[in-house]
Amino acid sequence: MSIAIIVEGKNDKSRLKRVVDDSVLILCTFGTPSSLTLDELRKKAGHKHVYLFTDNDASGKKIRSLLRDTFPDAEQIYTRKGYAGVEGTPEEYIIQQLEKAGLDEYIIYPSTEPAVE
Predict the structure, then answer these.
(1) Dist CA 99 CA 79 (whole Å)
(2) Most CB atoms closer than 10 Å: which of 18, 57, 89, 100?
């Protein structure tokens, strides 16, 4: 299965890229998407299974609502209230949410090896 995860901005994308492998397409809305942006996102996502991962604030909820209309079959991934958006969410929590969504095969887990000096 090939997947796409849609986030709000480039900092969210950078944060997510650190914990998922390169096969995952990460797309950005860059704020509240226009109908043109939504069309572009639909084309870029193609036939991939789409996941929506937006901030847990008023803006993120509005964006999620617009994306839900465009991608009615998309699965939802949530960050916790109190975190400064996806970009401010600890990697461990992002990994937990990706696991909840069943995306284990795409996760890059942090090394548990001690640093070699």
Answers:
(1) 13
(2) 89
Predicted TM-score (pTM) of the model is 0.91
Mapped onto helix, strand or coil, the DSSP state of residue 44 is: helix
Q: Residue 68 corresponds to which tokens in the numbers above?
A: 């839900």
- Which whole-number Å values give the CA distances from 20 to 44, 57, 91, 99, 102, in the listed order? 18, 24, 11, 11, 13
Contact 55, 85 (CB under 8 A): yes
How far is residue 71 from each of residues 60, 74, 105, measured CA to CA in Å? 16, 5, 23
Q: Residue 3 pairs with which residues in a beta bridge?
A: 49
Task: Specify the DSSP element, H or E, that contains 37.
Answer: helix 35-45
DSSP 114: P
